[in-house]
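Q: For a teaching handout, I want to show students what a protein-ligand complex looks like in token form. Below are the inputs, and the small molecule is nicotinamide-adenine-dinucleotide. Please produce the holo structure.
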Amino acid sequence: MSPGVRRREFLAAGAAAGAVAGLARDALGQVQPKPVRLGVIGVGGRGSYLLGVALKAGVEVPALCDIAPAAIARGTAIVEKAGGKKPEGYQKGPTDYQRMLQRDDLDAVLVTTPMQLHAPMSIDALRAGKHALSEVAAAMTVDECWGIVRAADETGKVYMLAENCCYWFHCLMILNMVQKGLFGELTYAECGYVHDCRSLLFQGDGSLTWRGEMARDCCGNVYPTHSLGPVAQWLGINRGDRMVSLVAGRTGSAALNDYVAKRFPEGHAARQIRFKLPDSSTTLIRTAKGALIDLRFDMCSARPHPTTTYYTLQGVKASYDSRQQFIWLDGRTPGYRWEELSKYMKEFEHPLWTKHGAEAKATGHEGADYFPIREFLQAVRKGAPPPIDAADAAAWSVIIPLSAKSIAEDGAPQEIPDFTKGKWETRKG
Ligand SMILES: NC(=O)c1ccc[n+]([C@@H]2O[C@H](COP(=O)([O-])OP(=O)(O)OC[C@H]3O[C@@H](n4cnc5c(N)ncnc54)[C@H](O)[C@@H]3O)[C@@H](O)[C@H]2O)c1
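A: Here is the structure, written as tokens, with nicotinamide-adenine-dinucleotide included.
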């Protein structure tokens, strides 16, 4: 075979391999990833921000959907400013996203609508043959959780939960330490989302936002994944262990009612609303391997920002507390005392941060928002399982209905379904 023939065959083979892996060649013949064509449903605060992050990662955006024309206009301006073609807007009402899902020039959708809509929209997207990246939480009911798992299984499309807190520098660093065995057997984790969000429950006129509607309608932990996500990854939930049952308890709603009384005058309609959401709730989760997770949720108590998320992890050989960023490592920490986590930063920085840290930091939010978009696009391009898949999203989100059920039943234990359908001990990733 002549070198010319060999070269032609090599290029043809390369082009075929590239096509399989979703790659294309640029004018210079260099292999480039083919841009993923992404539609966005819900171009509000979060949607427009993640749209910008996705555009920086090289996606094309042929279509946007929102019930608010102003949101479509804002999203369109973001796409055009990034050098993209004007996307088509879908703004004919709450179900117009289904018309967008019929397009054949969309590979994937980003779902950044109010939380109550994530599951139906993600399921419809998967069933319409699109990959789906959903904002947190994934679902509000047990049935919706199963719906996502079934839709991902049956369509073979990539479903990923965009849980950005799993990608904080320190959360990935602890994951790296756990995987290298520094913690030994894991026994206990404490985590929480504690963030005074009372002002976000109301529109200017006192009517409820979608967050306010959740506070009116739900008594459980309605925002579990920021706190639980990293802990679940440390404990190997759905990959060696699984959450089997929970009990939950609550406070009253004194701080929420106090806020309403101070903000709205007597006789105002907002004062008539009976909120189910407690100021604070705690959910205790037991795992199959005997670990205990103490999960706090509080978006109504008065306290200055920022507290937001915190994490502790206890192993037989190590202990970590994110509130001071302290760690103790048996055999490494001199004496029996806490040390600054930063001392181990160089040694245990997670490879994702070593490789992409500079790019990640440039996207803001301390870099955490860059990774869910990147990891999702990688999974779509490679046809590989995403790092936070439907079974993970369902397990983390099912805390919403089950903590509410436990609270409603005065702390009765609730069984947590096995969304891996028996594969939790052997799943890798
Ligand atoms: N991961 C994070 O750090 C983080 C931060 C903020 C918000 N979020 C999540 O992002 C989601 C959106 O939050 P947000 O603060 O951007 O809310 P938002 O109210 O600013 O945006 C929601 C958008 O969805 C649109 N919408 C409502 N119903 C729709 C429908 N049927 N079809 C199409 N569009 C519709 C609204 O018009 C609005 O533009 C929430 O689920 C929230 O939990 C995550």
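A: Two things your students might notice: Residues 41-47, 65-68, 71, 94, 97, 112-115, 117, 135-136, 164 surround nicotinamide-adenine-dinucleotide (CB under 6 Å). The longest strand covers residues 186-194.
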